[in-house]
Amino acid sequence: MAKLRFEAPFSGWIGVREVSLGQYLTPGTTIASLNVWQPLRVVFTVSQGQVAKIHPGLPITLRVDAYPAHPFMGQVVAVSSRVNPATRNLTVDAEIPNRHQWLRPGMFGEVTLAIGHPQVRIVVPSTAITYSTFGDYVYVIHQKKILAHLIPVAIATPVRVGSARGGLTPVRLGLKPGERVVTAGQIKLRSGMPVSIHGTQP
């Protein structure tokens, strides 16, 4: 070994040694793993319905559990030429600069694609949505005059919602920006009942 010179085909980081001192090595034995951290390749899949929207150069945002408050920005560099016939998904390759080397090969994360134009959506805590066979609804807080006093009451309001994400649910129809909704205790409510408001957030 002292007379041999090992040259890596690329620059990178060597991990834990996978052989012991004095061990007899045969051709093909892995001595250590060499990984590239900068840039880092991200591989993920999208459904076949998104094929027309995915292309090289498309911005992505990667989030990992190790750094929940720090999104990593990158872009798509390659798109598979075929859809997987078993899953009907398309494989996409992207690159993340990883300048601070916080990310490591093999980490699992969540990728968000910048598809289409940004849209302003009303979102509410998912606990505010009441689901029923007659349609989804939320209890919206209104001020009602009772005996010369304004009293907050909860009014059942039908809504049309999207898919929940991260504890929040987008409301596509039925709410106006700034309206307050009930997020707990709906099982005890009836439309028009007085309520107590805790906190000041809408």
Automatic annotation (TrEMBL):
It holds the Pfam family Beta-barrel_RND_2. GO terms for cellular component: efflux pump complex. GO terms for molecular function: efflux transmembrane transporter activity. Residues 42-114 form the CusB-like beta-barrel domain. Belongs to the membrane fusion protein (MFP) (TC 8.A.1) family. This is Efflux transporter, RND family, MFP subunit. It comes from mine drainage metagenome.
